[in-house]
Write a structure and sequence with these properties.
alpha/beta
Length: about 170
């Protein structure tokens, strides 16, 4: 039952590290993602902790994206949505990691306030050789585009695959 404390440590140390690099933050050349556990996204006190840490570090919240797995997000949809709504009011965004491997992905996608989908690497890895994987990746990307959601393909390890994912 220590994962929540670990998440707090990660958030606090990420904020401390980012704050120490203020020139990079001011240039707005990058966004930073922080993974959160399923336990943390059902804890509204964690949302308040995030607000305090970002404020104390004077980090522009729109540079921070919190990643959570699709499975964790849908395990307790109501609490996860409340947590995400609270943190989004700060200006942060959310990404669904491992998208496509959870249950009822599309049913929950319309209800979760996410800005990014990370397409699971199990679909991306063989997209050059498996027409079904390629079609699935394209379909998810098209769906996300239509919803105004950014997509990221995991496990892009070659230029050929990078070019395929870019289309």
């Amino acid at each position: 039952q220590l994962i929540g404390e670990l998440d707090r440590w990660v958030v606090a140390n990420a904020c401390k590290s980012l704050s120490a690099n203020r020139p990079v933050l001011e240039q707005r050349v990058a966004r930073f993602t922080i993974n959160l556990s399923g336990q943390s996204i059902t804890d509204l006190q964690m949302a308040d902790f995030i607000a305090r840490e970002l404020g104390a570090a004077r980090i522009p919240p729109d540079l921070i994206c919190f990643e959570l797995t699709e499975t964790a997000a849908v395990a307790n949809l109501e609490k996860a949505d409340a947590f995400m709504q609270r943190v989004r009011t700060l200006g942060c965004t959310f990404a669904l990691d491992d998208f496509g491997t959870g249950t009822s992905s599309l049913a929950h996608l319309k209800n979760l306030p996410v800005s990014m989908l990370k397409i699971d690497g199990s679909f991306v890895r063989d997209a050059l050789t498996n027409p079904r994987s390629d079609s699935l990746v394209k379909a998810v990307a098209q769906l996300a585009r239509g919803m105004g959601i950014t997509t990221v393909a995991e496990y892009v390890e070659t230029d050929e695959l990078r070019l395929r994912m870019a289309n």
